[in-house]
Write a structure and sequence with these properties.
Blueprint (H helix, E strand, L loop, with lengths): L2 H20 L6 H13 L4 H8 L3 H13 L3 E5 L6 E5 L1 H21 L5 H19 L1
Antiparallel strand pairs: 1-2
Helix pairs in contact: 1-5, 2-5, 3-4
Length: 135
Amino acid sequence: MNIFSLINRLNRRYLSGLTVKLSPFGLTPANWSLLDYLVQNGQVTSIQIATYWDIEKPTVSANVKQLIKLGLIETIPGKDKREKQLILTEKGHLLMNEVSPIISKFQDDLLSNFQKEEKEFLQRGLSTLYEAMKE
């Protein structure tokens, strides 16, 4: 199996496992990724998220609308009247405090057979591949 087929299959299995962990909370992997980004970065714009995740802004906007409807995030005015900042609500913080340890354990379990050096090597290799694909 070539490396790109392996990456594709790995991604599918990872997303499948992530979906199983998130579904009891009514979240999708895309929802969780956006919420986690807000936890890590504080208030941000949809454009910042789209740029970071290499996705189109309408894709982010659909996710944002869903999370606003669930009461997990809200918008606040930005510096520019057209720009809205996204922030977690109290409900969003509480949910992430509950979900994050479950996802961290899931991810740690997936990497449990790797030594620290192997994880670092894998991280560097995937980062190098990602950077090469951006060009």
